[in-house]
Amino acid sequence: MKKILFLMGILISGIHFAQTYYSQDFNTTGLNNWTSVDLDGDTKNWVNENASALSQSFGTGSLKSNMYVGITNDLITSPGINLGTVTASNVALVYDLATSTLTPQLSHNKYSIYVTTSNNSGTITASTPVFTEEVAQGGVQHRSINLSAFIGQNIFISFRHYNSQGLFLVIDNIEVKTLASSDLGLTSVSVPEYGLINTNYPLKATIKNNGFESINTITLNWNDGLNDHISTFSVTPPLTTGNQATITHPVNLNYALAAEKNITVTITQVNGSADSTPSDNVQSTVFRSLSEQSPKKVLIEEGTGTWCGHCPQGHVIMHKMTVDYPENFIGIAVHNSDPMQVSEYNDASAFSAFPIMHADRVDLQKFLTTTQNYINFRKNMLVPARLDASSSLSGNILTFNASATFKTVISNANLRLSAILVEDGVKGTTNSYAQRNYFAGGSLGPMGGYENLPNPVPASQMTYDNVGRMLIGGYTGVAGSIPSSVTDGQVVNYTFTATIPTTFNTSKLKVVLLLLNADTGAVINARSFLLGTLGTSNSETNANYLTLYPNPASEYIKIQSDYKTDLKIYETSGRIVLEKNNVAPDSPVSIEHLAKGTYLVSIKEKDAEPKTQKLIIK
C-alpha cells in the first residue's frame, strides 16, 4: 500500500523520470543512417572515426568533421526522430563534443544545431539554428539543448560545422530524451592523494545538472568512515540543465595522525528534496595523511637519438634543468636507434616522436619546451615515502641496497621499486655517435651553441649526459619489492644487483631509484645516487644523502643533497680554509686555491647535525 501511495504521489506532483527516444554512440561502422552533405565542396566531410584517444567515453566511433584546407562548411543530419508520442513536458538533446586547433590563433570552431521537419539540406540551412557556439580549443565537453518546443513532431537534427579554421570537431553519445525533473549528478570528487598532518585540505565536488529544473540548493555530505560532515549550499547562479559547477565543502580534511581515510561523498538533497535519480549521487576516494614531508624529485625521461636533427634541443633543455632545478629534477636520456639504445628501455617508453619527454610517467609524450612547467607543477607534490640507498661496488658487480621510509598508512597498495643505471660523459669514436643537428647555421634560432656546430656534429665533438644505460629491476619495477600494506615509519628494504659492463665509466655512473605505482605506471618519487662516491669493496651509506664528490678532487667539489647546505673545509690542524653557506645541491665549489693534501669537510643540511667527510685534494 505504501508503494502505491508513493507512486500516486509522484504522478500527482508532476515529477517525471528520464525516458529516451533516440540514442546513437556511433560504435558501429558508417554514419549509422545519418546523412552528410559537403556544403563547401572540398570533398572533405563528416566521417565516423575512432576518437577514443580524446576520451574513453567516445568508444570506438564518433562523428568527426575535419578541416583540411581553408574554412570548413559541412552538414550532417540524423534519421527521423518521432516525438509524436511524447507525453512528458520536456525533451532535450544531449551529446558530448571535443575540438582542437592547429594553433591558439585558429580557435574558431563554430557549429550550429538545426531542428527541422525536413531533411533537405537547403531547408535546414535556411532555418534558424536552435543553438550555435564557437568552442574553445581542446577538451571533452557535454551539452544539453532544450527541444521541448518540438514535442508532437517528427524531427531531424542537424549539426553544421562552418566558419571554422580549427582542426576538427567531434560529436558523440547523442541522445534525445525526457529529463527527470530533479537530477543532479556527482561527477567527480577532488581531494589531494596525500596531505600533511594538522593541515587543512579542501574537498571539492563537481556537480552536473542532468535534470530539467534549475538547481538552487544542494546538500552534500562527506564521511570518512567515522563522522558525517553535512552542509547545504546555495548554487549561484542557479545551475541550469546540462551545466556543471565545482563547489568546495566548508569542512576541510584535517587529521592529527598519519592515517588512511576512505572518503565517501554523497548528495543527499537537491532543492530541499530527495534527488529523483540518486544512482549518480555518490563518489568515493582515498586520502592519506603524512607524518612529515619527504623530498620529491621530478623524473623527466627524454626520447632522443643521434639520428634526430631536432634532438640537440633536448640536450640543451636537460642541461638547463639540471642547472636551474638541482633540488627538483632528475633527467634520463632514453636513446633510440643509436649505439646508446637500451632496447628494453626504448620499447617500454614507446616515444611517438623525437625529441619528446615523459614527466614522472604521468604526463606522457610532452614537448620538451614544457619541461620547466611540469617540474614546477610536480616538484611540490607530497609523496608517501623517502628514498635512500647504500651500495657497494666490487669489481664490476654492483650491490644497490634501496630503502623506502613510509610516512603514512597504506592498506592495499601496489607499489614497486625500480632502479636505472645512468651515465654522464658518454663518448664514442664511430660515425654513429655523430649528432644530427638541424640547428647548424642558426636558421632555427639559437640552441645552446649548437647553431655554431656543423650538421652532423662529429663524434669527437659530442659528449652525451644522462644516458640511460641499464634497467635494474625492469621498467615497471620489481613485484613484491614493496609490501601491500605499510605503516607510518616503516622502512622497506630491497637489494638490487647488476653486472656493470667494463665499457661504462663507473666514476660517472649514478643509480636512479624509483618508487612506482604499479597500477598506473606513475613515478611517485625518484632519487639519484652517484656510484663515484661509493667504495670499491665496502658498503658506504648514502642514507643521509649528504655526499661529497668527486673525491679525490682537484678543481671543484659538489655536495649531493636534497637541500642547500653549509660547507666548511678544515686543515688537519683544525684551521678553517674555506667556508660556504647555502650551497645548492650538485653545484660546484672551487678548491683550486687549496694546496694538495688531506682535509676534513663539514656539511650541514637544514637543521640536521653536521656530517664530516675526508677530502683528498690532488
TrEMBL record:
Residues annotated as domain Cleaved adhesin: 31-176
InterPro entries per record: Cleaved_adhesin, Ig-like_fold, Secre_tail
Keywords: Signal
First and last residue of the signal peptide: 1-18
All residue ranges annotated as the Secretion system C-terminal sorting domain in the record: 548-617
Keyword Signal: yes
Statement: the UniProt record of this protein carries the keyword Protein transport: no
Stored NCBIfam families: choice_anch_J, Por_Secre_tail
Annotated protein name in UniProt: Omp28-related outer membrane protein
Source species of the chain: Chryseobacterium endalhagicum
